Amino acid sequence: MASARSGGTLLLAAIVAFAPLVLPNNYAYDVAVQIALNAIVCVGLNLLIGYAGQISLGHAGFFALGGYGSAILATRFGVPVWVSLPATCAMVGALAWLVGRPTLRLKGHTLAMATLGLGVIISIAITTEDRLTGGPDGMAVPPLVLFGAAVQGERLWYWIAGALLVAAVWLSLNLIESPNGRALRALHGSEVAAQTLGIDAARFKLQVFTLSAVFAALAGALTAHYAGFITPVKSSFLHSVELVIMVVFGGMASVFGAVVGAAVLTVLPQLLTVLKDYEMMVFGAVLVATMVLFPQGIVPTLARRFGGRAR
User: Fold this and answer.
1) Is this structure's pTM higher than 0.85?
2) Which of 66, 68, 161, 210 has the fewest CB atoms within 10 Å of its CB?
3) What is the mean predicted confidence (pLDDT) over 182-188?
């Protein structure tokens, strides 16, 4: 297990390291950065949905809070970006812990509706608090500063986003193979059975919910500082649905499935722009066809067909 886990992480690191050899221009680097940042969110969301079996339709809210929180601390209160970013992730984690305590007592469609409501509340707050957030027009975000220098340019951002993605995957794989990870898989199989074995279901669900929110906040903050601007669109319900689709498309209960799903569904809309009016129609058809051919998602289905185990 450990060798397979290390091998997968090393393969991802190798892909990140050698991908620049085939990236032709800054546009390609920009798409690669978007893939990495989306994949970080999906890796965390997959821990919640794929392994713990808890649905969330409000993770775009945590994503947006990461971006807006770091931007507000930096622009409105003069906090250095290298402080505002981790501080925002910590505050989003604390918020997720607080709202998760009552919310995660729900199950199934009621939990989905509760997380949807949370995302809507966050979106409304961001849109209406225009003195802090700029309202519907959004707000400018200062550049990320590391070691006294501003991080600018797609190529430098590529290495930062790529390194953080590898770290997120490594952390998730180690969590999954730990006793806590086995407890999460037991919860997914049967919460009642897990509790009879002495597993504290409420604690483990709350922990993974908080961790997935921190992943989303980190990716949201990095996205905002990379783009230099953020709008309430990042907190929308549709963005939450996009993130869930990426997880399901790549394969639930598969860390690398989350990465593949984020990669494919970030690149695919870029490729379909040539179709103009038929872009969304073809995009939907591709999703339907993929789920018919790969019912458990791309990575788990391929792993089963070739006799392996999805991770």
Assistant:
1) yes
2) 210
3) 82
